[in-house]
Amino acid sequence: MPTATTTLSSKGQIVIPKEIREALHWEAGTQLTLVSSASGVTLKAIPKKTGRRFADLIGSLKHDGPPLSTEALCQPVEYGADEDMVKGQAR
């Protein structure tokens, strides 16, 4: 990872050098979190939202077999009764 030196402006601003921005893939508009510590400040990029909604995931997991009723899905699971059942591999 490259290192660089920058100077704090009279307005409290800094410029992150181009080689650092390119190495971290930070573009204009990237939101950063500043974490203060005794030794200085750490900058971390806030992960970009993917733009996916929960509704977009419907149908992404496939189930082989007959559909399960809501009642069957809501039944409590008894752990330890049968090791194969716990792993979801009924015989």
TrEMBL record:
Q: In its keyword annotation, does this UniProt entry include DNA-binding? A: yes
Domain of life of the source: Bacteria
What are the entry keywords? DNA-binding
Recorded protein name is: AbrB/MazE/SpoVT family DNA-binding domain-containing protein
The record's listing under InterPro entries reads: SpoVT-AbrB_dom (IPR007159), SpoVT-AbrB_sf (IPR037914)
Q: Which GO terms describe its molecular function?
A: DNA binding
The species is: Pseudothauera rhizosphaerae
Gene3D superfamilies, per database record: 2.10.260.10
Q: Which SMART domains match?
A: SpoVT_AbrB
| Record flagged with keyword DNA-binding | yes
Q: Provide the SpoVT-AbrB domain boundaries.
A: 3-50
